[in-house]
Amino acid sequence: MIRRLGAPLAGRAAWVVAGAVPALFLAVFFLVPVANLVLRGFHDGGSWTLAGFSEVFSAPRTWRILWFTLYTATLATAACVALGLPVAYLLHRCRFPGRGLLRAIVAVPFVLPTVVVAVAFGSLFNPGGLLEFLQLKESYLAILLALCFFNVAVIVRTTGSVWSRLDPRLGQAAQVLGASPLRTLWTVTLPALGPAIAAGASLVFLFCSTSFGIIMVLGGVKYSTLETEIWYQTTQLLDLRAAAALSVTQLVIVSGSLLASTALQRRTQQSLRLHVDDSAEHPLSPARDWFALSVTTLVVSVLLVLPMANLVIRSLRRDGQWTLQNYANLATTGSSGALSVPVWQAVWNSAWIAAVACVIAVTMGVLVSLVASRRPRNRGGRLSLTLLEGAFLLPLGVSAVTVGFGYLITLNRGPLDLRSSLVLIPIAQALVALPLVVRSLLPALRAIDPRQLEAARALGSSGWQVLRRIELPHLVRGLGLAVGFALATSLGEFGATSFLSRPDNPTLPVVIYRLFGRPGPDNYGMALAASALLACVTAIVMGAAEQARGKGVSTW
Predict the structure, then answer these.
(1) Contact 322, 312 (CB under 8 A)
(2) Range 41-272+280-315 classified under CATH 1.10.3720.10
(3) Residues whose CB falls within 8 Å of the CB of residue 361, separated by 6 or more in sequence, listed in order
(4) Is 339 helix (H, G, I), strand (E, B) or coil?
């Protein structure tokens, strides 16, 4: 009797510990630093005050920035949905040679460093670029195109994974009853895809409203979002009250997007338990699928491939000649003292920091996913797991500057005096990558049919045996994708790293931004070469992750 009672208690204690470890990590390295910075903004001379809010929101500039942030995010989200749905159909419902390669091409832009994409679009429209004649340098359209470049993959991945599992007999029955293909799409397919589309759209809105590197490089002095304004108020004006007011505003927007995304994501989980064979797919027919084929060709060739191809071409040219001089200059510190160390030193820094960040993010992500995938019977338990999952998605939307500056004013005394330590950079990068790791692993665990788990327990398997024989094999199916996301995200992280890195130990994205902001053809050529190098490395990592992805693991 004691043994029977002891086993469940030990199992519950183990799950409590498994949840407590990542929760403590999140509290120490995210919640406390962010809360400390925000609370300082409400404290003035020994008293608490809301003067920062009244000052910030009485300024017309704040409302212009808030409107620009929301309007741009909404417009970019609508464009991503319109472009992403035809691509999702073609890549997940049609069979044709080269589909796997095309999926990788569409997926890679999402994890490319923001500063690289900004440099790529800047070089496309700058003098000498392939689209210089459009005169879109530092234009609003260039910003929108860059945001769509990043986030079309979100719609394709979240919607396509569900679309590939829809029962084709529903649409076939509608057509037998006389419905046209367009009416079938409108009345049968899109309503079934509604939760997945809405979940992807809420994520796209979140990413677009918190895009830091795109606005910093492409926006110039004309455009500002909440993200860049927090950076400006914190680093240039040292106005913590204004930064705190803006951070709280951003947190409200982010929390709304995350709650919507999490709720809608749960509604799409049931589709992941449907068949994972290819019975819902059909061979590509140009006559029938001409619209999806045309949109996909336009998106892939113009929106995705052209900017990166132009970046590589520009990095290989100098004064109208083909040359490798820009790459050879990576062994230097640039002209006019642009850098403190050669670019290759930054490459090494990025590599080892990303490796450490990946280990941290994947370890914490595995624990969070295992705990969040539990199926408690009581409502309180389910609510607790929902809040746990939502808490680990918050780093996606909170300003990286808020996190970085919070580190400097919080982790500056014992026992965690890490202000001058390089360990803060991989920790910050791990926090950014952690939500993507969780979103890569958790759907694979939730796709397990509960009846399979109940049958195993009914046959006498203990909780540990169920975990080892059923849940862990499903978790491994998404592990390759999770590692790829963690590495690629860490390699390209710019926001928090730009705030925490020192001049003698920069990462590659920070070096690219510094070179891009310095005048001179040598520095600009080095920025192009370093951007092309980082893009290639990130693409290779993500391509390998896609190859390692288990069958049926296509969402995150």
Answers:
(1) no
(2) yes
(3) 429, 430, 431, 433, 434, 437, 486, 490
(4) coil
